């Protein structure tokens, strides 16, 4: 599990270490880690042309110290001082001592021929997007051939939210210190961070503000069937999705549930004929949820319409004491009658995309973690806010940011697949917020496998779910999972 820590949390942990270590020691650790990663990425030191973009704070100090280390290893390092009077004094002196050169002129900083560019403009102390001088230097860096490496955080990205207000440094790699900040993995920031390398600088960190599951974490939560299991003990999920005219959502959602968890899927709805034809393994009725037989969780909404019948089905399943996943059309209905979800005794999971989210009247700015948390607390539900990095927030504030997936998943029907996956996990009795996070991770991995040869369609994701489970289970360090407990 990767813990995500806010800038304040990291700063507080840093000040504890600062109080008991010699001056500059922490920055030395950061700079040494940074230089080590740079050498690994570049594959050599001697003759390596490096340009440092140096801002006015300690982030610039890290870059200068790392530049000094690289100079000593034989690199040709130039520091571009964006605010020369405020450049970190000790770092600047170290670079000069080592034989590095400095300039205040972006045109003279060698960005057109650098092998490596280190972005030390701002880190956790940055506010807002790049200022004009910094933006000009970044534009030159982007136009040049150098590998773009951000120091701690791509400048211009908000450490806590990933919001980018204006321009930011588009890093190919980010070397971050002490802890991964949420802004590196969520929101727009995710797209600016590139590959994230965490350097341990010996901080004692508090509980993270949010978490990111690894393959091993997810595998550990996916239990094998035991010798005494039968189809009922594996979790039975009910699906109400699709319509007679558009059965696709019912077919995809039912198929995803079947392929995620080999228990039993019951389908109830007007897409019955299409679902029966596609999935003989499902138990299908064209009646209402109450006609479907016993289930341990419901998925309701994808392609199910927003008419009175659909509304009454939604009210029926939300009136049960079973976990319910509400998606798509059912979210539109719920947004108009949120009281149906408020105060339920069993867990409810909402899986909105941005438009569905704002229909509830919740604001969605650059802070997707904050928005999902506010919504979850408002209704007392788990909110899975879909996006490039899906955010899952539970009613108690537990938060996950998903780290798997591919842009190819932005295609019709993949949301129906996600609902089926999470619904199947809910039916096993898994905690609802974990089920949403585990389901998002598995769905993303299946999407990555399905997209290996190029574009994918949603049914490709369904087909790749078993291979994705296998991939997760063969990840390093997977502990054995205990069998699920079915109520
Ligand atoms: N506190 C510590 O002991 C350590 C801090 N470290 C580094 O220190 C960084 C934080 O340093 P600081 O708190 O000095 O802050 P930063 O270096 O992140 O930036 C603050 C400076 O940038 C200016 N600034 C703010 N927004 C700007 C913008 N949009 N465009 C241009 N300039 C802007 C401010 O005026 C201020 O002078 C971390 O990200 C990390 O890189 C590491 O060396 C590890 C140890
Ligand atoms: K930076």
From TrEMBL:
Binding site for (6S)-NADPHX: 58-62, 123-129, 152, 249, 303, 353, 416
EC number: 4.2.1.136, 5.1.99.6
A single GO BP: metabolite repair
Annotated YjeF N-terminal domain residues: 10-209
Catalytic activity reported: (6S)-NADPHX + ADP = AMP + phosphate + NADPH + H(+); (6S)-NADHX + ADP = AMP + phosphate + NADH + H(+); (6R)-NADPHX = (6S)-NADPHX; (6R)-NADHX = (6S)-NADHX
InterPro entries in the cross-refs: Carbohydrate_kinase_pred_CS (IPR017953), CARKD (IPR000631), Nnr (IPR030677), Ribokinase-like (IPR029056), YjeF_N_dom (IPR004443), YjeF_N_dom_sf (IPR036652)
Amino-acid positions noted as binding AMP in the UniProt annotation, renumbered to this chain: 386-390, 415
Top-level taxon in the UniProt lineage: Bacteria
UniProt entry keywords in alphabetical sequence: ATP-binding, Isomerase, Kinase, Lyase, Metal-binding, Multifunctional enzyme, NAD, NADP, Nucleotide-binding, Potassium, Transferase
Assigned protein family: In the C-terminal section; belongs to the NnrD/CARKD family. Belongs to the NnrE/AIBP family.
Role of this protein: Bifunctional enzyme that catalyzes the epimerization of the S- and R-forms of NAD(P)HX and the dehydration of the S-form of NAD(P)HX at the expense of ADP, which is converted to AMP. This allows the repair of both epimers of NAD(P)HX, a damaged form of NAD(P)H that is a result of enzymatic or heat-dependent hydration.
Name of protein: Bifunctional NAD(P)H-hydrate repair enzyme
Organism: Klenkia soli
